[in-house]
């Protein structure tokens, strides 16, 4: 697996990134370490986490994922230099008062969160430090519309960038990125960075999959022209695009109860739990089978082969899932199949947006 540059930075990452938000909740520490070992053995050099993980977020597991990764690194001398390590500072509290005091995300919050992540990860530097969701009000996590009346922003983007710049100057962060962003946010971060000599964002981590192609509604052009890379998350639509729920909905007795969307009500309340999302997934899964592919192969190849995606973040709970996701790297989609996918999107739109 070759590496490619992330945005205009000097980071070179594999086109598949290991997401870790299940570590510390669905995945215990020994199994998490085995998954990390296997991913590196198979050529993955990019690992993504966040200060608020594990997910679903709760006080007892906040920071647990970073700590698991830190202990993994601590037991493997030399491993740190082989991987690109990314983590995220949480945005304003979304019902998670245990992350920080207050409802905002100040410059001091950014610095304090970074220091905490460095300690838990047992590293001196974070390769890619991302803002998990915007400090300002934006339509995200299933909310469709921007509402100016809900704006409560207290820390301007320039102030956020200046805090990140201090971390870069101190050698604690190499490059910065965004997540769950909008075209306005990306343009403003880049504009202010270039105007004031502040760190330029290398990447944006947003949802992108067959059930949610909203990235293609302006974000793709914005990031292409600005030289900012997409890190695509939820490529399997929280399991809907694996086919495991084609016969039984997540809440049915016959559904696999170990899956996140079946196990956690908080997940079902978001975009992935919509009846339209499940119905759409079943259509795409059937399309995959009609073309001799598994649903997982189709969904991942759609991301793996898109010019829009720099690296696809895969989240797994077992070694078997990891191998299946990595094995899908060689899957090719014919022009006819891609046309069928586009025709289906025209009909279904983005049911998990």
TrEMBL record:
InterPro entries: AKR_Detox_Biosynth, NAD(P)_OxRdtase_dom_sf, NADP_OxRdtase_dom. One of its GO terms (molecular function) is oxidoreductase activity. Keywords: Oxidoreductase. Residues 15-344 form the NADP-dependent oxidoreductase domain. The keyword Metal-binding does not apply. This is NADP-dependent oxidoreductase domain protein. It comes from Alicycliphilus denitrificans (strain DSM 14773 / CIP 107495 / K601).
């Amino acid at each position: 697996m070759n590496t490619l540059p992330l945005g205009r930075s000097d980071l070179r990452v594999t086109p598949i990134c290991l997401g870790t938000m299940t570590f510390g909740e669905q995945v215990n520490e020994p199994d998490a370490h085995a998954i990390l070992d296997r991913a590196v053995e198979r050529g993955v050099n990019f690992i993504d986490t966040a200060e608020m993980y594990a997910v679903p977020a709760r006080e007892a597991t906040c920071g647990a994922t970073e700590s698991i990764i830190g202990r993994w690194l601590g037991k493997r001398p030399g491993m740190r230099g082989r991987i690109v390590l990314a983590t995220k500072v949480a945005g304003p509290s979304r019902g998670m008062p245990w992350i920080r005091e207050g409802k905002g995300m100040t410059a001091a919050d950014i610095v304090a969160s970074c220091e905490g992540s460095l300690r838990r990860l047992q590293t001196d530097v974070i390769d890619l430090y991302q803002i998990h969701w915007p400090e300002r009000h934006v339509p995200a996590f299933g909310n469709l519309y921007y509402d100016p009346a809900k704006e409560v922003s207290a820390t301007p983007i320039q102030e956020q960038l200046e805090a990140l710049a201090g971390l870069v100057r101190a050698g604690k962060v190499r490059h910065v990125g965004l997540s769950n962003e909008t075209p306005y946010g990306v343009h403003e971060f880049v504009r202010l960075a270039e105007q004031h000599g502040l760190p330029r964002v290398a990447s944006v981590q947003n949802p992108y999959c067959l059930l949610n192609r909203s990235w293609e509604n302006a974000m793709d052009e914005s990031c292409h022209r600005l030289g900012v890379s997409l890190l695509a998350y939820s490529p399997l639509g929280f399991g809907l695009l694996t086919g495991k729920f084609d016969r039984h909905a997540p809440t049915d007795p016959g559904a696999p109860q170990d899956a996140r969307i079946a196990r956690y009500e908080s997940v079902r309340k978001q975009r992935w739990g919509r009846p339209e999302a499940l119905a759409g997934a079943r259509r795409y899964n059937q399309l995959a089978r009609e073309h001799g592919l598994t649903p997982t192969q189709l969904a991942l190849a759609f991301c793996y082969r898109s010019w829009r995606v720099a690296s696809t973040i895969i989240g797994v709970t077992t070694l078997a899932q990891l191998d299946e996701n990595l094995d899908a790297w060689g899957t090719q989609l014919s022009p006819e199949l891609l046309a069928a996918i586009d025709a289906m999107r025209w009909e279904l739109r983005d049911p998990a947006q």
